[in-house]
Structure to design on (296 residues):
């Protein structure tokens, strides 16, 4: 029998499905719950076990991982008589890998402590491709001992794994990550439109830009999205809109000015308002094209 901890995984979306499957591949006993039947079938086909509810999924788990869209969903699965905290065993470790507000993470850790449940906030960066390839960056907040215990599990999911401080710190770093990513995508989108309108070979231009100081993971990952106008969601505009709200509010709370971030947050919001919220965040290109007179 495996000596690895038993894992309950709550939330099997674009990121959660491949991440949970990577744990199965690494030898973990994974029991999953999500609202979509097809996602449960996918986990079962990969070798996992499915549960009919959050309560059933977490009851015998040593480690509980949540990967859901935002703070309201984390609170919905964590609290209440059918939630994680009322059904997890004392001593279990709850790892929330969603991207939520730092304060939600702090409040969750405090509530869980009263139930004898330990908590780490551990949001990730790398998108769907990073989840599939198990090369995510994982930024963690919480106690050092809990981080050390969770490190082997994290190593089955990602490549860069760093404890950033106490509860909420992982979410704060993730907010900064989302700020950088959004600004970077916006800059790339503007460059694409500028290059195309100038009559330059776009593929060649992006190749040479990737090799210089302008190169970035964003440009490497999103190059084909820009070239092919392929905006199938790896990370949806709707979610990046949520994340820009998180970083804007958190920055205001600590007195940090985000002048460029505020502009990009408005551009993300405008793209969403035009019906593109379900597209990949590389669809910021569509916003720049509209501003430049294109019909998209």
């Amino acid at each position: 029998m495996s000596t690895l901890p038993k894992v309950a995984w709550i939330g099997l979306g674009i990121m959660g499905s491949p991440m949970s499957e990577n744990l199965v591949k690494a030898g973990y006993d994974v029991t999953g719950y999500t609202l979509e039947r097809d996602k449960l079938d996918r986990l079962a086909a990969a070798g996992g076990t499915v549960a009919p509810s959050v309560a059933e999924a977490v009851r015998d788990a040593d480690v509980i991982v949540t990967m859901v869209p935002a703070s309201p969903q984390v609170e919905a699965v964590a609290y209440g008589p059918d939630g994680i905290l009322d059904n997890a065993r004392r001593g279990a470790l709850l790892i929330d890998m969603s991207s939520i507000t730092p304060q939600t993470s702090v409040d969750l850790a405090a509530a869980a402590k009263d139930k004898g449940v330990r908590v780490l906030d551990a949001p990730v960066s790398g998108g769907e491709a990073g989840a599939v390839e198990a090369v995510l960056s994982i930024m963690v907040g919480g106690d050092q001992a809990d981080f050390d215990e969770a490190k082997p599990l994290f190593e089955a999911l990602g490549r860069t794994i760093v404890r950033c401080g106490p509860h909420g710190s992982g979410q704060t770093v993730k907010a900064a990550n989302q700020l950088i990513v959004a600004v970077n995508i916006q800059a790339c989108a503007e460059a694409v439109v500028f290059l195309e309108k100038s009559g330059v070979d776009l593929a060649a231009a992006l190749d040479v830009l990737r090799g210089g100081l302008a190169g970035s993971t964003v440009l490497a990952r999103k190059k084909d999205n820009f070239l092919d106008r392929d905006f199938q969601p790896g990370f949806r505009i709707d979610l990046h809109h949520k994340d820009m709200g998180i970083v804007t509010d958190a920055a205001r709370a600590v007195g940090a000015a985000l002048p460029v971030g505020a502009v990009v947050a408005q551009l993300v919001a405008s793209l969403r308002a035009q019906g593109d919220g379900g597209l990949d965040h590389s669809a910021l290109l569509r916003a720049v094209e509209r501003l430049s007179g294109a019909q998209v």
About this structure: The mean pLDDT is 96. The radius of gyration is 20 Å.
